[in-house]
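HUMAN: You are asked to prepare a plain-text protein record giving the amino acid sequence and the backbone structure tokens, both parts labelled.

ASSISTANT:
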Amino acid sequence: MSSRQKFILSSLLPALLLVMIFTYYPFFKGVVMAFQNYKLFNLKQVHFVGIQNFVEAFRDQQFLAAMKNSAYWVFFSLILQFLLGFILALFLNKKFWGRGVYQAFIFYPWALSGFLIGLIWKWLFNSQIGVINDLLLRLGIIEDRIGFLSDPNWAMSSVIVANVWYGIAFFTIMLLAALQSIPSELYEAASIDGANGYRKLLYVTIPYIMPTIIATTLLRVIWIFNDPTLIYGMTNGGPGGATHILSSLMLNKIIYDGDYGAASAVGVIMIVMLFLYTLFYLMVTKSEKVGDF
């Protein structure tokens, strides 16, 4: 090994060590705990219990409800975030006066934390002093105030609305960057062939940015599925677990129950679900160059 290679290796070792300590060790420790009776308030009784934590998880009605909620949460959040983000990206891709102001206004939610976004929307949806109830009453759309976050029939839809608003900026940023990379010659050639705006969108724009669409939707699904911060800020999983998704339920088991074994089992189930989803998604989209953005 040359001195140059030794220098590079010695420079990388601290970074590799930190990655091992803060990424891989917690991961493997969590997998081990998923098979243990590991409760914070009874550490003297830590022992292996096989798949008991997993069996109890699938017998838990709250866990099953959280799985169903996670599906709603990811599906509707992703679809609405993508569609609205794509429309805004097409809008911002055109030159007009004040475009920079619109961009700043649309992009700024992405700079805030999910928990803070949750607190903001918790106030907006408040049944007594919330702006949304007040606005709907003034417009005559409703006659009585609605408990958006206290009524189980409204709670899940309300947190999804907040999450859509939060995630639009991500798709707008990424898709706008992809749109601005499309060579103008492609549109000129399409115009010569007689293509109108709709056909240019369908046969030039979308195919060209398809790798970006595939990569961003894959990443966004993983983030939405894993991130409980917005729900924690808005409802803490309530009312009665109506807005719990798997990640928020896992946090509850740690914070309120101190049951690290059960929480780790939920975490392992989430990892398996995401792995299977990613594998399926990449197989379906393997003809596209995912990540080429």
